[in-house]
Amino acid sequence: MGTGVLTLFVKEVTKLGFKRLRPCNVEELAVSLRVLLCKDSFSFFSGHASFSFAIITFTVLALQKEIKWIYILYLWPVIFALSRMITGVHYPSDIIVGAGIGIVLGMITHGIYKKEWIKLPRFIEKRINY
User: What digits encode the pLDDT tens for the residues 18-54?
Assistant: First the structure.
């Protein structure tokens, strides 16, 4: 949950700072795009890409020792992010930056999770055994 909340926070702050229009809102580009739904919100960086990459990165890091083929889960955010670009909702740079931020935030939150949850059971065990 912390991964998702942190990612959404970083995305919202960044979008307010950059205020870049989506490709579907630029008349010169919109005519050559296959637009399904065009929002009025800002484009940079892709919240969908960052959120999906953050969640998958956290999951992969948490389960990589238990599940041999866990890295195949990265297909989901890659396909999802590409669909956002194909439909004219994001520029390629929105996707690349969103994916990068998502991976970094997934790694950071996994590191915090791992550090805290490794210590917590020991702390509880010490208190119960006294």
Answer: 777 776 666 666 555 555 566 676 667 777 888 889 8
d(CA 44, CA 14): 7
pTM of the predicted model as reported, rounded to 2 decimal places? 0.71
Q: Which residues contact 4 (CB under 8 A, 6 or more apart)?
A: 51, 54, 55
46, 20 Cβ separation under 8 angstroms: no
> Which residue from 23, 24, 14 is spatially nearest to 44, judged by alpha carbons?
14
CB atoms within 10 A of CB 78: 15
* 15 CA to centre of own chain: 14
